[in-house]
């Protein structure tokens, strides 16, 4: 092990030297990071986005997929605006990558932070995360009908916890409101983990968290899944119906991707893309995805950019109709 | 009984020679990382995390926890010696630690910090061992309203802190609150107070930048003016006798230490709060319950003991929500959480049931890490004190370099360095005008937390402001805050009475005559 890390550090030094002496020459396969890579996370600590980004970081380091360590940095403020702005201000940086979620397109649409995501470089979409409606296990609510009845009866004071106005869960909330003609009071928190805790502590009445964020509490019997917003039932919750099969076509995904700043050298983009391809094939990742009800289909490059821009257009409509 | 069996199994894991070695390594590394301004336990844990995949999970978490602990001890060192808090958790330690060092009692202050950390850490681990699972429920009972009330309480324990001038304290709190609103608003995502469109302000003003500016740079400027390069040489030798008398002195402050330990543990346990408010509250409380509150800020040893017991107790406390609820209370515990996910462990309510070996191995290692940290720390005190013997002109330059490097390192933005210069100058002027700086820094740390929880409560309660007193826990905290707010006023009344000789000073003589 010592020998191996010695060898990688030599490699790192060589790579660093070739960066200095041969900066103009960019061989696709030759570029290697010369210093630790900053992985910006568009969300606060403990939420779904954070956990998954840190999982990736750990797998990369365990499997030696990068010769330099990855340093995750949470910049969750303002629905990820802080992170987006950081990426924009680090134009041309070959050692900054960002873990995204759907606020990647919604936040620039909603707030005037001078960020155009079409300028950023897509690296890889690792997975699509799912949404489930949750209530506290002590609650009387067992079905979607119970839920709708309870929310209507509360007359607008039903507390739906989420991670910020305009965030994914608030969009799902808006879809629910539109479909059933109900009203929630949407309470924003700093991350899905905090939302989960507040649901178990009865400070909010429901949430549409990702399964990964609730899994610990679900296994402990503290929360109850009511309905899934996926086209088909999730393997981990075979007894939980989808909204679609109950006759309400609410389907919504959360993408888990990585992007790089504008102007990152092509060789570096290729390096990271390849790193994520290797990562996607690891057993740890595949197992995690399965357990946490993630759909792990990977896309990269221009296909991913097209996906981002299509989603941006789609979200523009959703936002316009929900506000 | 069951608990003891589990714990002794845990010790079997943590006392293996390999794990002991890991604890010692981790604590030593943590001490130095924590002692460097700008580097904290977050950096230490982040750097070491990848190395942990070669050892079994139990050893890995032991290593990370040892670094975490070591850094918490180390944070006090730069607070005392240089007057720059290395981490927000060590701010309160500068208030009296620094004056003690200036009076030539650096060694005593360091011994006090180390010993107090040990007591705080140990009491907290014992509480953790006994009550981890039931206490998780208490953490759950904390919603936004309770968070707000707690932060309010932290503020009020602090009003009396800035000396006698309550008006100046309140002005500084307000200034700190204004600074804390700079950046992107959590709830709406809109940028606020960014001075036109300076991108550097988007992420807000970090605590470290303000603290390094006002304490580090400001202090250097002030000292240059007052001492006229007159070096304050302190005695670098410390003997076992010093150590013995030091520990004996400190041991007599059992009240301060128990306040610090219990308060620290409970505040640290709450997911939102953590070690910084805990140490500040302990300091404020120690001052208000002290017999000589006026000596706080001039090098009262209680002012070192209280925050140091509290921040170590809180750092143990903050492991509780991470392990039992899967919610990290601090950036460092978030990293630990990430590591645990990687090792295939699922933090959350099931961890204690599914992975007893891991959990109890970790808990028992907190005991060993504490013992190791206090011993290593005390052994290194002569080295740290020796650093103070440098000529002032040299020390001063080193401190300035540390300030700038420490401020630049975390985000690598020149923007932060300019802010440090600005805050340094402002801090110097404020200090000359006798404005207290602690409330300013405190308000910047706690402001965002307070604002967020206040707005969350109002949103979820449909704008009903009475929500804060309708909930029993938050009502209790609000009541306590009112009490603390009034307490200094009562103290003022009492001291004005004392000027009449009839009331207080004669009384002891009467009692003597009677007996």
Structural class of chain B: mainly alpha
CATH architecture of the largest domain in chain A: 3-Layer(aba) Sandwich
Provide the residue-averaged pLDDT of chain B: 80
Taking strands numbered 1, 2, ... along the chain, how are they ordered across the largest sheet of chain B? 1-2
Secondary structure topology:
The complex is a heterodimer of chains A (323) and B (515).
Chain A: H1 2-21, E1 37-41, H2 48-62, E2 70-74, H3 81-89, E3 96-100, H4 103-110, E4 121-129, E5 132-136, H5 144-154, E6 159-162, H6 168-180, E7 185-188, H7 192-200, E8 206-207, H8 211-219, E9 223-228, E10 254-260, H9 266-281, H10 283-291, E11 299-300, H11 301-322
Parallel strand pairs in A: 1-2, 1-3, 6-7, 6-8
Antiparallel strand pairs in A: 3-10, 4-10, 4-11, 5-8, 5-9
Chain B: H1 2-14, H2 17-35, H3 41-48, H4 57-81, H5 91-102, H6 106-140, H7 144-156, H8 166-180, E1 183-184, E2 191-192, H9 207-227, H10 240-251, H11 254-269, H12 275-289, H13 302-317, H14 319-325, H15 331-342, H16 351-354, H17 356-387, H18 392-408, H19 414-432, H20 438-460, H21 467-470, H22 472-497, H23 507-514
Helix pairs in contact in B: 1-17, 2-4, 2-17, 3-4, 3-15, 4-5, 4-6, 4-13, 4-15, 4-17, 5-6, 5-13, 6-10, 6-11, 6-13, 6-14, 6-17, 7-12, 7-20, 7-22, 8-20, 9-18, 9-19, 11-12, 11-13, 12-13, 18-19
């Amino acid at each position: 092990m010592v020998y191996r890390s010695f060898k990688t550090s030599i490699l790192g030094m060589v790579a660093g030297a070739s960066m200095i002496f041969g900066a103009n020459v960019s061989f696709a396969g030759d570029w290697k990071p010369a210093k630790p890579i900053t992985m910006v996370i568009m969300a606060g600590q403990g939420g779904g986005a954070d956990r998954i980004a840190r999982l990736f970081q750990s797998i990369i380091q365990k499997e030696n997929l990068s010769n330099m360590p990855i340093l995750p940095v949470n910049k969750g403020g303002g629905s990820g605006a802080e992170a987006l702005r950081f990426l924009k201000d680090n134009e041309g940086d070959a050692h900054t990558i960002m873990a995204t979620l759907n606020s990647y397109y919604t936040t620039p649409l909603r707030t005037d932070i001078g960020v155009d995501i079409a300028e950023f470089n897509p690296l890889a979409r690792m997975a699509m995360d799912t949404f489930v409606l949750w209530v506290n296990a002590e609650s009387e609510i067992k079905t979607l009908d119970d839920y709708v009845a309870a929310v209507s009866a509360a007359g607008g004071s039903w507390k739906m916890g989420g991670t910020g106005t305009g965030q994914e869960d608030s969009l799902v909330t808006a879809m629910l409101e539109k479909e059933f003609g109900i009203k929630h009071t949407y309470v924003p928190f700093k991350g899905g983990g905090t939302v989960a805790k507040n649901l178990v502590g009865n400070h909010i009445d429901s949430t549409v968290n990702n399964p990964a964020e609730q899994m610990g509490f679900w296994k402990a019997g503290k929360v109850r899944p009511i309905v899934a917003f996926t086209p088909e039932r999730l393997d981990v919750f075979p007894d939980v119906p989808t909204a679609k099969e109950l006759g309400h076509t609410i389907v919504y995904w959360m993408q888990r991707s990585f992007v790089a700043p504008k102007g990152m050298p092509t060789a570096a983009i290729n390096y990271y893309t390849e790193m994520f391809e290797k990562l996607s094939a690891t057993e740890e990742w595949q197992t995690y995805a399965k357990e946490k009800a993630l759909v792990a289909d990977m896309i990269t490059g221009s296909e991913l950019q097209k996906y981002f821009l299509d989603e941006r257009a789609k979200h523009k409509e959703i936002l316009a109709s929900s506000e | 009984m069951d608990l003891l069996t589990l714990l002794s199994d845990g010790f079997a894991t943590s006392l293996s020679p390999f794990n002991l070695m890991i604890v010692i390594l981790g604590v030593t590394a943590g001490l130095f990382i924590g002692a460097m301004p700008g580097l904290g336990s977050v950096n230490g844990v982040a750097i070491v995390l990848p190395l942990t995949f070669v050892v079994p999970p139990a050893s890995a978490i032991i290593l990370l926890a040892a670094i975490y602990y070591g850094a918490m001890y180390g944070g006090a060192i730069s607070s005392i010696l240089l007057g720059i808090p290395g981490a927000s958790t060590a701010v309160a330690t500068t208030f009296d630690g620094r004056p003690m060092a200036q009076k030539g009692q650096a060694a005593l202050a360091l011994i006090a910090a180390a010993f107090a950390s040990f007591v705080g850490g140990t009491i907290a681990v014992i509480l953790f061992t006994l009550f981890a699972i039931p206490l998780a429920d208490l953490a759950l009972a904390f919603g936004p309203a309770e968070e707000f009330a707690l932060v309010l309480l932290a503020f009020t324990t602090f009003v009396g802190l800035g000396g006698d001038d309550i008006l100046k304290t309140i002005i500084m709190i307000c200034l700190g609150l204004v600074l804390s609103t700079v950046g992107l608003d959590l709830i709406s995502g809109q940028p606020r107070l960014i001075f036109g469109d300076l991108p550097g302000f988007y992420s807000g003003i970090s605590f470290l930048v303000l603290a390094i500016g006002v304490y580090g740079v400001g202090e250097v400027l002030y000292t240059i003016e007052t001492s006229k390069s007159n070096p304050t040489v302190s005695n670098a030798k410390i003997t076992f006798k010093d150590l013995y008398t030091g520990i004996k002195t400190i041991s007599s402050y059992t009240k301060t230490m128990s306040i610090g330990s219990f308060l620290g543990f409970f505040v640290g346990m709450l997911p939102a709060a953590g070690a910084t408010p805990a140490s500040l509250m302990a300091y404020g409380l120690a001052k208000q319950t002290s017999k000589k509150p006026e000596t706080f800020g001039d090098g009262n040893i209680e002012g070192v003991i209280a925050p140091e017991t509290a921040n170590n107790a809180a750092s143990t406390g903050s492991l509780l929500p991470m392990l039992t609820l899967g919610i990290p209370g601090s950036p460092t515990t978030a990293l630990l959480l990430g590591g645990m996910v990687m090792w295939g462990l699922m933090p959350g309510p099931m961890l204690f049931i599914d992975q007893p070996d891991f959990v109890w191995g970790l808990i028992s290692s907190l005991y060993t890490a504490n013992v190791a940290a206090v011993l290593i720390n005390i052994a290194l005190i002569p080295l740290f004190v020796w650093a103070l013997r440098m000529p002032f002109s040299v020390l001063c330059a080193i401190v300035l370099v540390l300030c700038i490097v420490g401020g630049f390192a975390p985000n690598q933005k020149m923007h932060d360095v300019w802010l440090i210069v600005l805050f340094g100058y402002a801090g110097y002027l404020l200090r000359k005008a006798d404005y207290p700086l602690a409330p300013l820094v405190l308000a910047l740390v706690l402001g965002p937390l307070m604002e967020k929880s206040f707005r969350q409560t109002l949103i979820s309660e449909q704008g009903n402001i009475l929500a804060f007193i309708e909930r029993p826990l938050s009502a209790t905290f609000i009541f306590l805050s009112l009490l603390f707010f009034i307490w200094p006023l009562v103290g003022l009344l009492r001291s004005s009475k004392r000027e009449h000789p009839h009331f207080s000073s004669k009384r002891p003589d009467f009692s003597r005559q009677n007996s």
